[in-house]
What does this fold into?
Amino acid sequence: MIRKNKIHRICKRAGMLFLLTGIMIAGIHAQTGRAGSGSRMHAFISTLMSKMTLEEKIGQLNLPSAGEFTTGTATNSDIGKNVKEGRVGGLFNIKGVEKIKAIQKVAVEESRMKIPMLFGMDVIHGYETTFPIPLGLSCTWNMSAIERSARIAAIEASADGISWTFSPMVDIARDPRWGRVSEGNGEDPYLGAQIAKAMIKGYQGDYSQNTNIMACVKHYALYGAAEAGRDYNTVDMSHLRMYNEYFPPYKAAVDAGVGSVMASFNVVDGIPATGNRWLLTDVLRKQWGFRGFVVTDYTGINEMTDHGMGDLQAVSALALKAGVDMDMVGEGFLKTLKQSLEEKKITLAEINAACRNVLVAKYKLGLFTDPYKYCNGQRAKTEIYTPEHRKIAREIAAESFVLLKNKGNMLPLKKGGKIALIGPLADAANNMAGTWSVATVQNRSVSVLKGLKEALGNKAEVAYAKGCNLTEDAALEERVTMFGKTLNRERDTRTPEVMKAEALEIAKRSDVIIAAMGESAEFSGESSSRTSLDIPRAQQRLLRELLKTGKPVVLVLFTGRPLTLNWEQKNIPAILNVWFGGSEAGAAIADVLFGDVNPSGKLTMTFPQNVGQIPLYYAHLNTGRPLEEGKWFQKFRSNYLDVSNEPLYPFGYGLGYAAFTYSDITLSSKSLKGAQTLKATVTLTNSGKYDGAEVVQLYIRDLVGSVSRPVKELKGFQKIWLKAGTSKTVTFQITPGDLKFYNSQLQYGWEPGAFEIMIGGNSRDVKKAQVNWVK
Ligand code: BGC
It folds into this structure.
């Protein structure tokens, strides 16, 4: 806040000068084109750079935080002065078009080179209108919905001055202890790649509109593979696995033209990603042809000192030489690059290359043509948090929910009678948006209580009780409400007995109990790893008490990660996993609970039975001693003594109110040659009473290869809408491109032989057929 005030003061003082210098700038900018031909752009940048001092070039590589919402410890002082003196290339963590416009004015009217700035923000799953957390969004398996959510986020953010978002996060994650699984798209590289493309298209478009902002794919690379699921921890894996399982979504982002890449905090082959030349230059630029700029994560350069890579000067030089262009927050570049150049530890060419990459981004966004492209105060008033955006957010939220259990078709509920709504997340508007929703007004989201009341009007009676606090461990609750303090995410000070008694009283008088429980928003996200994935004990205890009333119980489960739900799966008749659904979460929950919307979400991350099974993912290798089908333990086979190898809910799983059945697979041919196309067809029937959507999933297994291949890999999916009682044939066209993988020499290609084709409604329950494919 101190920094914000300073900026205001500087901007005020600068007010008069803006007017005069504005006229001059208009002249310069009129000569430049927006994203015109590459050679025109580079000529423009070369001319610009020829006039820049070394300090000004280094200044372009500096990205301070304005400090409105931060994740790290470093702070930056005197932003306005630094902008004026050419020491800032971009700014983030600042919200509000007027504030941004004022700083942009300092940059383009008061600094010597008048270079416009980038304004970044973590617009992760919506801006003020929030959509489900990314893990939830991925469970829609609906690429156009995901693209639309990114589009709306871009419209709103750009209306408020933002030109750059630190999204999408595409880190493959197979360890739900890691809190940041909530920010990604789950465990699968193929699905992750499709989502990366959709998000980038939604954000960037072709940069031609003032609603197109630059995306930043992160966290490159392998950030989701932290040992033991502990955030920022060591990563170590084979190159084979990197290329086949973890790289595809980053590469898809590059192929989709992502404007920027964020380096990750973790080590890769023992070298922090931020200083890893193989990763940032050889793979990213040389192998994949990336042409944008690389930014560090928050103080990523400075943290290399703690990784044991040397002092600030050494790690800053290391980062520049590795291929980093912009230094987020840590000021390592700002403070040391000049000296490193004098000492010949880096070259001017390296500084020039980084500076050019940053300027190219600004040029592509059209900021040299109009530095105020994203500073239209009128748009800020009319294009943010609109009824239309919220309507779409509601639809998408409902599509992200995953129905995990529905014994005896208990759901949907009828709109009538007495409903007891119980749980610490039932009346928690400020928890609905979920992690990384920094721009939104949290309290404005629709809570479950509000959603139910609005949906039911006077058709039914809704009684509410909190029932218990989130956890019985006050210190843990303190940690999981760390950022929520200003949002009244306060612990209830009544005794557990009083709270329980109130809940049971209501429960006993009801016809049905809706228990809104699970994790709060800050249980997941950055720096929120857990070693137990149970619903916190206080809530589980209350659930048991509620069950004892003999009333039907629906668990509306909030979570940012797969939880261990063995007890709940055994005992609770209906479980609807709603993640954190965003602005309209409560309304969407009511839509699904009462059957106005038929749930169609499917899990994109395996739910384990217990923490000991982790990492557990469907696309594993077979091992030399796999279990025989149908067995859950065999001596000297790959298994556990105390629990089967099966997940609780497999990847791709999710129920609906409709009942879908699959015919056997029909193949266009059983033996194929070269570039032929195989058509694999099933008939999908909706044999239930409700219209609904089903995600039909295609998996392939390469039965013999030069390296051991996964037991199945997702290779396609189609979301099919079917009226009750109707059928449809669903065909997948498979080409040799779908059979490709990286071999032990890291060559990408396919190998002839036998392939198993599998189609089904989740990764476990599939129909199978086999083909032979020769070169
Ligand atoms: C996170 C990034 C985020 C950055 C800027 C870091 O702590 O790892 O995902 O984009 O902060 O807020």
User: Anything to note?
Assistant: The pocket of beta-D-glucopyranose is lined by residues 71-72, 122, 166, 218, 297-298, 526 (CB under 6 Å).
